[in-house]
From TrEMBL:
Residues 39-218 form the FAD-binding PCMH-type domain. Pfam families: FAD-oxidase_C, FAD_binding_4. This is D-2-hydroxyglutarate dehydrogenase. PROSITE patterns: FAD_PCMH. It comes from the Bacteria. Homodimer. It is an enzyme of class 1 (oxidoreductase). It comes from Hydrocarboniclastica marina. The keyword Zinc applies. Keywords: FAD, Flavoprotein, Metal-binding, Oxidoreductase, Zinc.
C-alpha cells in the first residue's frame, strides 16, 4: 500500500470511527469478490458499517475524496456485480444483520441489509409465518444483495420475485441522502415508486440499508414429485397438465448430465432406476387426500401419453429434502469444473424451442465442452453451464465462451428474452446488455444513474460503463 492510500484509509477511519476497516490481504481477497472467477479482486480496503448513519458517512466521505464504492453482501453473486477490481472501497454489510419491528397484524418485519436469507426464513418460521424467496445460497446470501439483484430462486412460480415481498426500503443514495421509500404501506398511489428503482439496480444508485419485508402463511404438507421426461418438449406438457388442476409451489428441471454430477458426489441417490434425458421436479401443497389423488392421476395420465418415463413422490419430509438435493446440489457439484454460467429467460411457452436452439449451436461449435442444463423452467428461467475441460487453461476457456455468448444472446434476442433472468448484469453481462435493452432504454438507465449518483462513485462499471 502506498503513502497516498494509507493516508486515505487513515482519514476514512477518522470520518467513520464506529465502523470496522480491514486492510489485510486475506480480507481484501475475501470481501473483494463474489462467486465469479473472471476478475481478480483489488480493493483499496474493506469497511463494515453498523447502521444507516454510518453508511451515509461513508458515502459522503467517498464523494468528498472521489473514492469509488462497491457493495458487498453474501458475495454469492454470479455476474461480478460485487467485485472490486479497480481499487474501490468495499462496503460490506455483514455487521448490519439485525431483525426488528415485527408486526403480526401487518405480517411485516424490518431487516438490515446484512440479514442472511436463511435468518429471515427462520425468524418467519418462529412466528408461525413464512418467507418464501428461496435458493441454494440461502445460508450465505444477504437480503441487501438479494434485493439489489431482485433475486428469484425456486419458488417464483407461486410466490414471485424478491421485489414482491418488499413493503418499504431505507436507502442511502449516491449523493449521500437517506430516503425512506413507501413507508411499508400496502396502498400508496403518490407518484413514482422509487423503491422499485433500487430493487434490481445492483447497488448502482445507492445502498439499500434496511428493508421491511412481508411474510405469509407457511405452506401445508408440501409434496415433491420427480419425473423422468421422454423429451424436452414434455416439460411444457407436464407443466400445463399439472397447472390446470394444482397450484404448484415449484417447477424445476435438470438434464441427465446435471444429475450425474450430483450423484457422483455420493450423498444423493438416484430417484429411480429408469434413465431419462431430462427430469422435472414439482412441488405442491397436499392439503387433502383429494389433492394427492389428483396428483397421482395426473402422473398416470402423463405416463400413458408417453411424456413421463418414470417418477417418484416423496413419502416424508426427509425424502422430500433428498429429492430437492437432486436440483439444489447441481451448482455445488459442478463448481470444481469452473463452469461458465448463463442465466437466461424467455416466456414459458418458448422454453423448449429456445433451449433446443441454444443447445444445438453450442454442441455444434464446441463438441469438446460439456453442457449442463437446469433451471426454474416453470417461470422461463434456464441456467446454461459450460464446463471447462480439465486440460484447458482458464483464460482460453473464458475467451472461447465469450464467442458462445454472442450466439446464445442472438437467440435470446430473437425470442424476446433476457440475458440475465435473476443474477444481474454486473461486469460479466455488461457487454451484452443491448441484446435485452434498447439503446433508448439504456440512455434512460444512464440518466437515472446520474440523478442518484452524479459523481459516479456507487458501484461504477457495473450494468454499463461510465460515459
Amino acid at each position: 500500500m502506498n503513502d497516498a492510500s494509507s493516508d486515505l484509509i487513515d482519514r476514512l477511519r477518522a470520518a467513520v470511527p464506529e465502523a470496522r476497516v480491514l486492510t489485510e490481504p486475506d480480507d481484501l481477497q475475501t470481501y473483494g469478490k463474489d462467486w465469479t472467477r473472471q476478475f481478480e479482486p483489488r480493493p483499496l480496503a474493506i469497511i463494515l458499517p453498523r447502521d444507516t448513519g454510518q453508511v451515509q458517512a461513508i458515502v459522503n466521505f467517498a464523494n468528498e475524496n472521489k473514492v469509488a464504492l462497491v457493495p458487498s453482501g453474501g458475495r454469492t453473486g454470479l455476474s461480478a456485480g460485487a467485485v472490486a477490481a479497480n481499487g474501490e472501497l468495499v462496503v460490506a454489510f455483514d455487521l448490519m444483520n439485525n431483525i426488528s419491528d415485527f408486526s403480526a397484524s401487518d405480517r411485516t418485519v424490518k431487516c438490515q441489509a446484512g440479514v442472511i436469507t436463511e435468518q429471515l426464513q427462520q425468524f418467519a418460521a418462529d412466528q408461525g409465518l413464512y418467507y418464501p424467496v428461496d435458493f441454494a445460497s440461502a445460508g450465505s446470501s444477504q437480503l441487501g444483495g438479494n434485493l439489489s439483484t431482485n433475486a428469484g430462486g425456486i419458488k417464483v412460480i407461486r410466490y414471485g420475485m424478491s421485489r414482491d415481498w418488499v413493503a418499504g426500503l431505507t436507502v442511502v443514495t449516491g449523493k449521500g441522502e437517506i430516503l425512506e421509500l413507501n413507508r411499508d404501506l400496502v396502498k400508496n398511489n403518490t407518484g413514482y415508486d422509487l423503491r422499485h428503482l433500487f430493487i434490481g439496480a445492483e447497488g448502482t444508485l445507492g445502498f439499500i440499508t434496511e428493508a421491511t419485508m412481508r411474510l405469509t402463511r407457511p405452506p401445508e404438507n408440501l409434496q415433491v414429485l420427480v419425473l423422468g421426461l421422454a423429451d424436452l418438449t414434455n416439460t411444457m406438457d407436464v407443466l400445463q397438465a399439472y397447472q390446470q388442476k394444482l397450484d404448484l409451489t415449484a417447477y424445476e428441471f435438470f438434464s441427465h448430465q446435471a444429475m450425474g454430477h450430483v450423484l457422483a458426489h455420493g450423498d444423493t441417490p438416484a430417484p429411480f432406476e429408469t434413465e431419462a434425458p431430462y427430469y422435472a421436479l414439482l412441488e405442491f401443497e397436499a392439503t387433502s387426500e383429494a389433492v394427492m389423488e389428483t396428483a397421482m392421476a395426473l402422473f398416470e395420465e402423463c405416463v400413458e401419453k408417453g411424456w413421463v418415463l418414470d417418477g417418484v413422490v416423496s413419502q416424508n419430509e426427509t425424502q422430500a429434502r433428498k429429492l430437492w438435493q437432486l436440483r439444489e446440489r447441481i451448482s455445488e457439484s459442478i463448481a470444481p469444473r469452473t463452469p461458465y454460467k448463463n442465466d437466461i429467460s424467455v416466456v414459458v411457452s418458448r422454453v423448449p424451442l429456445f433451449l433446443s436452439e441454444i443447445d444445438a449451436v453450442v454442441r455444434e461449435h464446441y463438441p469438446d465442452f460439456e453442457i449442463i442444463w437446469f433451471g426454474h423452467i416453470g417461470d422461463g428461467n434456464l441456467h446454461l453451464n459450460i464446463l471447462k475441460p480439465e486440460t484447458m487453461d482458464k483464460t482460453e476457456f473464458f475467451s472461447r465462451c465469450a464467442t458462445v455468448n454472442q450466439w446464445v444472446f442472438d437467440i435470446v434476442a430473437r425470442h424476446g428474452g433476457s440475458i440475465s433472468a435473476e443474477h444481474g448484469v454486473g461486469m460479466t453481462k455488461k457487454p451484452y446488455l443491448r441484446f435485452t435493452r434498447s439503446e433508448t432504454e439504456i440512455s434512460y438507465l444512464r440518466a437515472i444513474k446520474q440523478v442518484f449518483d452524479p459523481n459516479g462513485i456507487i458501484n461504477p462499471g457495473k450494468l454499463f460503463d461510465p460515459e
